[in-house]
């Protein structure tokens, strides 16, 4: 074989993958399986009559999968109403939270006024206060204005998100001041400068705020459990807690897993829609 043929053959040979890379891939694959398995187990239990708790034998897929759990729980319980309540509260609260976070983050990052540092520090201190401390005075305020057992009792107290304001401020610090000053020189007011110059650069930030706010409100349990009292007014997490001791089911776990399977879908949809902006926004705010 000539030297030229041997060199051509060596060039065409694909590079070998080092064993360390294979170990890394295998470890990441195992970690992914461990993280996805609870979701898979939830779906399998939802398709098993009574859930897997009815059988002492472990299996990865039921012999006769059925939608009986879905049919039973949706016909005997107001699950559709719970889902609607959760969607309404999550969407409205997310919209208000994103608007408030964008405005507050822009003001704290770009405006110079007396007490700005103290105001920002006060915002950060509220993160350290657990909800158990504020739940009683918050409930008294909501009760005084007559909002108990209504969606607004959940929406208004949770629309102000300090974490969202912090992320928005960190992102706004990266917006060049020269762009805003140029807009002001051209005669644009503060609102025009914000909506025409700053807001178009905030796509990744909006993705982060939407995902974090929607997930927090959709999964919120303690505050809705306190202020929502009627069976038709409950959100999905609170409604799920009522199924475990419900005498309508011989074994409640099939019904619980069926409702949980349905209620995971909105979170997956929101994350898939905003995942690109979420990754860009997290990297832009300097949060690793």
UniProtKB/TrEMBL annotation:
Species name: Brachybacterium sacelli
Keywords: Cell membrane, Membrane, Sugar transport, Transmembrane, Transmembrane helix, Transport
UniProt domain ABC transmembrane type-1: residue ranges: 83-274
Lineage: Bacteria, Bacillati, Actinomycetota, Actinomycetes, Micrococcales
Family to which this protein belongs: Belongs to the binding-protein-dependent transport system permease family.
InterPro entries: MetI-like, MetI-like_sf
Coiled-coil region list: none
Chief site of localization: membrane
Annotated transmembrane regions: 21-43, 82-107, 119-140, 152-172, 193-216, 253-274
Membrane topology value: Multi-pass membrane protein
Protein's name according to its UniProt entry: Multiple sugar transport system permease protein/alpha-1,4-digalacturonate transport system permease protein
Keyword hit for Membrane: yes
Keyword Transport among UniProt keywords: yes
Protein localization: Cell membrane
